[in-house]
Amino acid sequence: MGDVLSSGPDRPPWRPPRRTVVVTAAVALAAALAAGIVSVSRSDDKDPAAAGSSPPPSPSGSPFPGGADAVVGAGQTPGLVIAGLPLPRGATLIKHDRTAHAGPWTVVVRRAGGSLGRHGAVVTFPVAAPSGGRPVRVGDVSGRAREHEITWPLAGSYARVRGDLPRSDLTAVAAGTGVVSGRPAVDPPPGLSVASEGVSRPVDLLEARYGSKTTGESEELSGGLTFTGVARCGGLEDGLYAAPVRTAGTVHGKPAVVTSALGGNGALVWEPAPGVVAYVGYSGASLDDGAVAALRRLAARTRLLTPGQWRATAPATSDQDNDLDQPEPSA
Known about the structure:
Elements: H1 22-33, E1 79-82, E2 92-96, E3 105-115, E4 118-127, E5 134-138, E6 141-146, E7 149-154, E8 157-163, H2 167-175, E9 177-180, E10 183-186, E11 192-199, E12 204-211, H3 212-215, H4 218-221, E13 225-232, H5 235-241, E14 245-251, E15 254-259, E16 266-273, E17 276-283, H6 289-300, E18 302-305, H7 307-311, E19 316-319
Parallel strand pairs: 2-19
Antiparallel strand pairs: 1-18, 2-12, 3-4, 3-11, 4-8, 5-6, 6-7, 7-8, 9-10, 12-13, 13-17, 14-15, 15-16, 16-17
């Protein structure tokens, strides 16, 4: 495909995972199906999209209709489906984290022309004290630097900046970071700007599950699971900087990357709106160029749903900790 590494000059070369995770996917599927039903977060109650702006969700078991992406309202988390595929009851899920607003919080900074997981960095506060790394000076304090990240003391705790920028830029971002009302605030150095601010863990993680055979891509993805997901948070982008990624063209005009950091064997990830992360992933075959091509074809068929349209699919809603440090396959 001619994909190039997005890790910067000193990130190790891309090595797709070799082992399959069919057993892991099965365990995750059982866990997801066992999730209890609870009330949906109030943050998605408002639906500013005009009625009729896109076709309504399909009846259970029939192919989901195509249509334009829904308008994403401020603070809303949209749903994501693959047009032309059946979406029966039980195939959609809202993973709701009641404690996400307790922190940590993030600030995403990028260069002009930067995009999700490319040419930028994520500041997270608070984080645990660093356990290693080389000493580095951040303003008047001493921090610790590891590959692509710096952790330093701030406001009685610690903050971390992680990205694919040069060390000098990461240090400058750290030096320009303060804390206001318990949240990080960044005065970015020249050449960088703030792209988004928000929680590190998503309040709501919206996912849809498909059998890979029903997608028509089982030759490349095997007979496991294919999943879509959408979240509004900074932690997903922070995770992209902590793992190997590579560029993968665009999805609906937005730059995309491929990674194995979201669980399963791999996922194609893009940013349909500022601060909103969407992905199509799978569990089954090894992540190779054929699998990436299949994910690109599926991503081209996706469409965003308003919160109201997503609720019409009768999603199960589970209360859980959306801890992005330990991702699981969406099943």
